Amino acid sequence: MSVLNYQTNIFDKKIAIHYIDRINKLEASTAPLWGKMNCAQMLSHCSGAFYEGSKKPSLFWRLRIYFFARSVVIGKKPYPRSMKTAGDFIPSSASDFEAEKLRLINGIERVQKLGPDYFLTKKHPIFGKISLQNWDTFFTKHLDHHLRQFGV
Questions:
Q1: Which residues are 129's β-sheet partners?
Q2: Among 9, 48, 102, 146, which lies 20 to 30 A Cα-Cα from 113?
Q3: What pLDDT is recorded for position 28?
Q4: From residue 103, how far is each of 4, 94, 134 by CA, in Å?
């Protein structure tokens, strides 16, 4: 499996703007190239990573992700298209596209403004204490995967 070539360092304003520009290319009607979520659901799904207090998955999903998907979630391997999203992280209803788009953009700006020092002592809700590089991979690789899913 190859390594994805995506923009890293969400804490850098230029990189944050790169992702925001890609998000701004989406429309409510943008269809996925794979998967079942619509565009608003994907934006809602991605937003969760950028906010504290986001829904924590059930113990079943936390253990499954920790033991079986850790290397994909925060490692160098790309997310496979066939990788299932943890059921606890799939938005149950079609969300308001514009509101979800704004929420995700605000989340990226929030993390970028908090800066790397904030994340040096922060624990990930599934993986616990992880490196700054792992935090950045968690944010950027996941976001890049879903933006590619919708062709941007």
A1: 123
A2: 146
A3: 95
A4: 26, 15, 23
Neighbouring CB atoms inside 10 A of 73's CB total 20
The helix/strand/coil state of 123 is strand
| H-helix or E-strand spanning residue 136 | helix 132-149
Question: Residue 4 above 50 pLDDT?
Answer: no
How much is the pLDDT for 90?
A: 67
- Is the pTM of the predicted complex or chain greater than 0.90? no
As given in the structure block, the two tokens for residue 115 are 């800066």
Paired sense of beta strands 128-129 and 123-124, if any: antiparallel
Rg (CA), the chain: 14
Q: Closest Cα to residue 71, out of 134, 149, 143? A: 134
Return the H-helix or E-strand segment holding 128.
strand 128-129
Domain ranges (residues) in the chain: 13-149
Give me 74's structure tokens. 């925060």
Which of helix, strand or coil describes residue 121? coil
Q: Is the pLDDT of residue 122 over 60?
A: yes
Write out the two tokens for 138.
């968690």
Q: Is 42 left (phi over 0), alpha (psi -120 to 50) or beta?
A: alpha
Query: What is d(CA 3, CA 109) in angstroms, rounded to the nearest whole number?
Result: 26
